[in-house]
């Protein structure tokens, strides 16, 4: 019966390892929630990019079929028809506005988790600590009996 309590230390270490892996390990709930949050960010970015794509597609169609749109874009670039004259005013910036946005770059973030090797080492340390404590108690009891 004395030996069974040493197996309890191993069982406790195994339960600690299983629980900590389930909650804080690489495939645990914490890492899953962080990956799910990243997925939502990526999906939101994808929806913004799809909206920008539709906007660009509409502008492309307008440039293909609408002459007025072509002339507006040409004037913004500094071109005009043969009858038009341009006057530049000193002191004004000649910046052209950028009508097309390329979107944002979202780099995936790796989830934070406790490495499996670390969890194993900690659970083994717990098992050794409990086993050592049981051994000390047994030695003290055997000394008291003498």
Unreliable spans: none
How many strands in all? 0
Global morphology: rod-shaped
N-to-C series of helices and strands: HHHH
Q: End-to-end span in angstroms?
A: 21 Å
Number of helices: 4
**Estimated share of beta-strand residues:** under 5%
User: What's the oligomerization state?
Assistant: single chain
Walkthrough of the structure:
- The protein is an all-alpha fold.
- The protein is 67% helix and 0% strand.
- It contains four helices and no strands.
- The protein has helices at residues 4-24, 29-65, 67-76, 116-145.
- Helix 1 (4-24) runs antiparallel to helix 4 (116-145).
- The protein starts with a helix and ends with a helix.
- The mean pLDDT is 87.
Describe, in short, the structure shown:
The chain is mostly helical and 146 residues long.
Topology readout:
Elements: H1 4-24, H2 29-65, H3 67-76, H4 116-145
Helix pairs in contact: 1-4
Name its key features.
146 residues; mainly alpha; 4 helices; 67% helix
